[in-house]
Amino acid sequence: GAVVSQHPSRVICKSGTSVKIECRSLDFQATTMFWYRQFPKQSLMLMATSNEGSKATYEQGVEKDKFLINHASLTLSTLTVTSAHPEDSSFYICSARDLRGQGETQYFGPGTRLLVL
Amino acid sequence: AQTVTQSQPEMSVQEAETVTLSCTYDTSENNYYLFWYKQPPSRQMILVIRQEAYKQQNATENRFSVNFQKAAKSFSLKISDSQLGDTAMYFCAFMRGIQGAQKLVFGQGTRLTINP
């Protein structure tokens, strides 16, 4: 099966610091990965599309300078929350597009819970 | 823009019963994919089932099956012989079939509880 990992699973940081979250596809290559944010009891909100070797595409309303995305290899994408503030506290989930088959299926990481104090 | 609507915020059934979760979507596309994802309390998103719009046959995966009505733009999920482990949030999702970023558009979710 297609496995996606995320690290860390949980992070607590002070306001003003930066936090990096890693998303890895473990048994397949992913030229495209996606970053989502999920508030309690709500659906997933797409933040950005991460493309290997090129700039990420951000959704409307998402600050690209606030949420830095790097997709340096076919198995790794990182999301850095810069100068984090309490309102950035949330559950962040990544997914990777499996190119095997027709490439239409996304597999999700286990998520990262961020708490900014 | 595509939209996905799940009209049942919460559902609850007894173990071993059959339950159907509804999903409707709006699109002008002819080629697309539909998905049901499950999010248990661990919050790990798990793919339950996938349907290609060009296929008339409804997808099935063991106890999970869909009723795909393309003209009505409806995509319901049926869970047979429900188990306690089926307790989770269920999200219906839409993806355009053309080449490109192929973003998923999610519904609001249905919280399903299976009671012993």
Description of the molecule:
The complex is a heterodimer of chains A (117) and B (116). Chain A has no helices and eleven strands. Chain A has strands at residues 4-7, 10-13, 19-25, 32-38, 44-51, 57-58, 67-73, 76-81, 90-98, 105-108, 112-116. In chain A, strands 2, 4, 5, 6, 9, 10 and 11 form a seven-stranded mixed beta sheet that branches. Chain A has a four-stranded antiparallel beta sheet with strand order 1-3-8-7, with no helix packed on it. Chain B has 116 residues and is mostly beta strands. In chain B, the strands form three sheets. In chain B, strands 2, 5, 6, 10, 11 and 12 form a six-stranded mixed beta sheet that branches. Chains A and B meet through strand 4, strand 5, strand 9 and strand 10 of A and strand 5 and strand 6 of B.
Element pattern of chain A in H and E = EEEEEEEEEEE
Count of DSSP strands of chain A: 11
Oligomer: heterodimer
Residue-averaged pLDDT of chain A: 92
Q: Any idea what the shape of chain A is?
A: globular
In this structure, how is the largest beta sheet of chain B organized?
6 strands, mixed
Helical residue percent of chain A?
under 10%
By DSSP (H or I, 4+ residues per run), the number of helices of chain A equals 0
What structural class do helix, strand and pairing data of chain A support?
mainly beta
Layout of strands and helices, then pairs:
The complex is a heterodimer of chains A (117) and B (116).
Chain A: E1 4-7, E2 10-13, E3 19-25, E4 32-38, E5 44-51, E6 57-58, E7 67-73, E8 76-81, E9 90-98, E10 105-108, E11 112-116
Parallel strand pairs in A: 2-11
Antiparallel strand pairs in A: 1-3, 3-8, 4-5, 4-9, 5-6, 7-8, 9-10, 9-11
Chain B: E1 3-5, E2 10-14, E3 19-21, E4 24-26, E5 32-39, E6 46-52, E7 60-61, E8 64-69, E9 74-79, E10 88-96, E11 104-106, E12 110-115
Name the features.
heterodimer; A: 117 residues; mainly beta; seven-stranded mixed sheet; four-stranded antiparallel sheet; 11 strands; globular; B: 116 residues; six-stranded mixed sheet; 53% strand
